[in-house]
């Protein structure tokens, strides 16, 4: 008999977590590795949030909460959605879960029947395809090539829809490309979603990390008709530097949210109570630290982008949001004697001691992903090492 179920046989571990683990291993051997793999802000969680968490614990608020989240937190999220996005929801249209990642997992579990297709734009966040497959769904990829600024068009979406298509995922600002869809582009995509009766899964976890004066626009803001078919997914991990607290949420159709809540009641129960109280403060308290962190990311980007672009054989589109750069390094890899960018990325780690994530994990195998969620000093040193590595081998 097989020990493991079929559903996990093709499951691949997260490429981003794998590189972080390898970098840590080298570090533990005393090797001075600079890790640009991680997808988390390098700042501490703001003090007011820590204090609110401690307060709640000291008050004895450490018991189970409703599976879908504390009413006071749902209200804080409702207020946030009105304040920031001009979107109105009722408490039964909100679920709080264990990070946006698990919220998405639960969403696909309640949405998909065996064989239902979900359209996933390339480049994609590593977990979308696996989560869709775990729910019995079939990922259907459409490519937002670098010529299209890593974004898909409405026309591509229309051509990919079949009678089995249930949903399309939009992640703007995007991990890994850092690209942001304009309101017009979203309107065209939404038009196809309405015409073809698709659910729009809008992953807005990088909402607060936008540069060059750009403002976030949620696809759900387009119209009541679009909002009805959109599930907005967001959380505090990236905006408030709260990755380890594991709080995310979804807002949308009450029937879907209710099913997700029922599933959570049998799988996770509530997200950690202390983390929920911390998140109430994250949304209801002062937002200065969110903007301070955003500014720090933007100034790193401005410093590092020209230097990275100047490395021979690196083609880099300037990101508009999130904290990743996705250079196309196919030429650099080829000119330095590697048969694939994956091999080039491995050599960057073992020879130049810079950890990056190979783009193959995101569906773009000619690229590598670098996170600039680390200090400017380290970023500059990392770019210098990569530059030397390429120039020496060229
Ligand atoms: N969606 C995208 C695009 C992400 O990059 C991440 C985290 O890396 C998540 C969702 C998950 O965030 P959380 O930490 O809230 O689970």
From TrEMBL:
Keywords: Aminotransferase, Pyridoxal phosphate, Transferase. Its cofactor is pyridoxal 5'-phosphate. One of its GO terms (biological process) is amino acid metabolic process. Transmembrane segments: none annotated. It comes from the Bacteria. GO terms for molecular function: pyridoxal phosphate binding; transaminase activity. The keyword Transport does not apply. InterPro entries: Aminotransferase_I/II_large (IPR004839), AspAT/PAT-like (IPR050596), NHTrfase_class1_PyrdxlP-BS (IPR004838), PyrdxlP-dep_Trfase (IPR015424), PyrdxlP-dep_Trfase_major (IPR015421), PyrdxlP-dep_Trfase_small (IPR015422). It is an enzyme of class 2 (transferase). Residues 32-385 form the Aminotransferase class I/classII large domain. Its EC number is 2.6.1.-. PANTHER family: ASPARTATE AMINOTRANSFERASE. Belongs to the class-I pyridoxal-phosphate-dependent aminotransferase family. This is Aminotransferase. It comes from Lysinibacillus composti.
């Amino acid at each position: 008999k097989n020990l493991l179920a079929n559903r996990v046989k093709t499951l691949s571990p997260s490429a981003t977590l794998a590189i972080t683990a390898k970098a840590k291993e080298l570090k533990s051997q005393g090797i001075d590795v600079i890790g640009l793999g991680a997808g988390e802000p390098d700042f501490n969680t703001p003090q007011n949030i820590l204090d609110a968490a401690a307060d709640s614990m000291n008050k004895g608020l450490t018991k189970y909460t409703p599976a879908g989240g504390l009413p006071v937190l749902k209200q804080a999220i409702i207020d946030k959605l009105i304040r920031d996005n001009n979107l109105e929801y009722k408490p039964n249209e909100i679920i709080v879960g264990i990070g946006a990642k698990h919220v998405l997992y639960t969403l696909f579990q309640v949405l998909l029947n065996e064989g239902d297709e979900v359209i996933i734009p390339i480049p994609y966040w590593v977990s979308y395809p696996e989560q869709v497959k775990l729910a019995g769904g079939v990922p259907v990829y459409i490519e937002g090539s670098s010529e299209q600024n890593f974004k898909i068009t409405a026309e591509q979406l229309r051509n990919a829809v079949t009678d089995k298509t249930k949903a399309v995922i939009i992640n703007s600002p995007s991990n890994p490309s850092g690209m942001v869809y304009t309101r017009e582009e979203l309107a065209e995509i939404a038009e196809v979603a309405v015409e073809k009766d698709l659910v729009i899964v809008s992953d807005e976890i990088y909402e607060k990390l936008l540069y060059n004066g750009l403002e976030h626009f949620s696809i759900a803001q387009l119209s009541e008709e679009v909002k009805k078919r959109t599930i907005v997914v967001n959380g505090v991990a990236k905006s408030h530097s709260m990755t380890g607290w594991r709080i995310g949420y979804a807002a949308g159709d009450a029937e879907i949210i209710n099913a997700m809540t029922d599933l959570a009641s049998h799988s996770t129960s509530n997200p950690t109570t202390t983390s929920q109280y911390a998140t109430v403060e994250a949304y209801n308290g002062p937002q200065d630290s969110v903007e301070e962190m955003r500014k720090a990311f933007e100034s790193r980007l401005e410093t590092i982008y020209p230097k990275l672009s100047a490395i021979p054989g690196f083609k880099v589109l300037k990101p508009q949001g999130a904290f990743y750069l996705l250079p196309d390094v196919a030429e650099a890899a080829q000119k330095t004697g590697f048969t694939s960018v994956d091999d080039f990325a491995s050599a960057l780690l073992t020879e130049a001691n810079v950890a990056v994530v190979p783009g193959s994990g995101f569906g773009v195998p000619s690229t590598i992903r670098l996170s600039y969620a680390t200090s400017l000093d380290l970023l500059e040193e990392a770019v210098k090492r990569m530059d030397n590595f390429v120039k020496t081998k060229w």
